[in-house]
């Protein structure tokens, strides 16, 4: 059975490429669009629970616009869901991405000008013009120091995750304003050009290979419904509801705590 989290089909439409979709469904070729809000919730159902979040400039394929709600599939990881149609705009090729934990987009190339948006790490932007210290983008003027060229990648997922230290824990969150364990791992891995799905069970199955050696920097430890990055042989880094934030934690203490609270033992140790 297809995973509904990554299968573009609902009660009315199905992606044209899907085999075996119910004959009563309208078969649809998607419309390519992009997110035009700093952060938008990707909902399980219209008006329902948040499954994930999408950031400014992220590409989506829209399969339906029904009563002002769009049914979309995110290109970064294939996750499907619903969001407000007014959070989407025409597709536009991104030229840069936000590599600072967060930044502001200003009305002019001047830090004293009004700030239009707060943009999170990973937001994708299109350059319109450049000055010495700013790049004018589709969101506004963003400091050069906070941007990487679209193909520029980082090389240490742990260092990326450390940018989020202190970020409040948010179930389904994917931004500097709030993030969960799988969102943190996904942000870290995608920034380093490692494909990564959105949820922990998918990550445990699809990311890296099982490691039998002692944990080392950059490894992933999985529990049922949770994931952490290994900082060193004694320390992990994770977004967690115990601290309600992205935080370091002694590895052995975390393993014992998680088991004692009834969430079980480590289910996998993976290496990229």
TrEMBL record:
It comes from the Bacteria. The keyword DNA-binding does not apply. Keywords: Hydrolase, Protease, Thiol protease. Residues 151-272 form the NlpC/P60 domain. Signal peptide: none annotated. Belongs to the peptidase C40 family. This is NlpC/P60 family protein. It comes from Sedimentitalea nanhaiensis.
């Amino acid at each position: 059975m297809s995973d509904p989290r990554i299968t573009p089909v609902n009660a009315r439409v199905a992606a044209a490429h899907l085999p075996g979709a119910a004959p009563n469904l309208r078969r649809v070729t998607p419309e390519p669009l992009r997110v035009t809000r700093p952060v938008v919730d990707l909902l399980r159902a219209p008006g329902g629970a948040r499954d994930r979040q999408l950031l400014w400039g992220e590409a989506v394929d829209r399969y339906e616009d029904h009563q002002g709600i769009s049914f979309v599939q995110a290109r970064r990881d294939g996750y499907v869901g619903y969001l407000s149609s007014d959070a989407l705009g025409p597709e536009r090729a991104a030229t840069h991405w936000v590599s600072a934990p967060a930044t502001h987009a200003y009305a002019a190339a001047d830090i004293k000008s009004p700030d239009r948006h707060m943009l999170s790490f990973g937001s994708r932007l299109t350059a319109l013009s450049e000055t010495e210290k700013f790049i004018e983008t589709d969101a506004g003027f963003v400091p050069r120091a906070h941007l990487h060229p679209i193909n520029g990648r980082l090389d240490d997922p742990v260092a990326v995750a450390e940018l989020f230290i202190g970020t409040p824990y948010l179930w389904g969150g994917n931004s500097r304003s709030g993030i969960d364990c799988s969102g943190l791992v996904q942000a870290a891995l995608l920034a380093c050009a490692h494909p990564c799905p959105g949820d922990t069970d998918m990550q445990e199955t699809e990311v890296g290979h099982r490691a039998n050696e002692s944990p080392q920097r950059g490894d992933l430890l999985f529990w049922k419904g949770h994931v952490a990055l290994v900082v060193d042989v004694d320390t992990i880094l994770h977004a967690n509801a115990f601290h309600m934030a992205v935080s370091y934690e002694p590895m052995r203490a975390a393993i014992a705590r998680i088991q004692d609270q009834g969430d079980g033992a480590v289910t996998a140790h993976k290496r990229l």
